[in-house]
Amino acid sequence: MAGRRILVILGHPSADSFCAALADTYADGARAAGAEVSVLRLGELDFDPILRHGYASRQALEPDLEAARAAILAAEHVVFVYPIWWGSVPALLKGFLDRCFLPGFAFAYRDARQNLPDKLLKGRSGRLIVTLDTPGWFNWLVYGAPGHRMMTQTVLKFCGIGPVRRTVCAPLRNSSPAGRARFLAKAAAAGRADGGVSAR
């Protein structure tokens, strides 16, 4: 019996980042649990991250974005791995969302009177693996965790992806080798847990 299909999307532009290590460690954990895992590294894709005309006219998708869409549709579980920069996601990841998660693919309005769209990516669950330089409690209590809320509520759940779980690795700044090893262990454990879940 085939394992659960998981897509890991690395939103950090660098393949040498700690986020890349987290993505690889999560993927290894999920594969060890029997999942079929693909890793999409946004820093290696060739696409314009700017939605040049907003939603006024269609901007042709580059082949890498077409392939990314196919990978999302094939997945049962979608995992985003990225750092919080300035309270939100890196520009590369935001550009990917702007260009990829468009009407007709991620959501759709049936008519001009409809204010809340149909969710076209239902049937998939999600996970966020996020690094921060600030302590996690500070991000929640002082800032309100805007990056977590944006990705969970206004992107993934808006398009029908849910439930969405989070694995937060913080604070990354000044963390010791032992601390980083604990973060990697958390990612591996999340991968094993997600990989062992039967497809819905």
Automatic annotation (TrEMBL):
GO terms for molecular function: NAD(P)H dehydrogenase (quinone) activity. This is NADPH:quinone reductase. Pfam families: Flavodoxin_2. PANTHER family: NAD P H OXIDOREDUCTASE-RELATED (PTHR10204), NAD(P)H DEHYDROGENASE [QUINONE] 1 ISOFORM 1 (PTHR10204:SF34). Belongs to the NAD(P)H dehydrogenase (quinone) family. Keywords: Oxidoreductase. It comes from the Bacteria. InterPro entries: Flavodoxin_fold, Flavoprotein-like_sf, NAD(P)H_dehydrogenase_qn. Residues 5-187 form the Flavodoxin-like fold domain. One of its GO terms (cellular component) is cytosol.
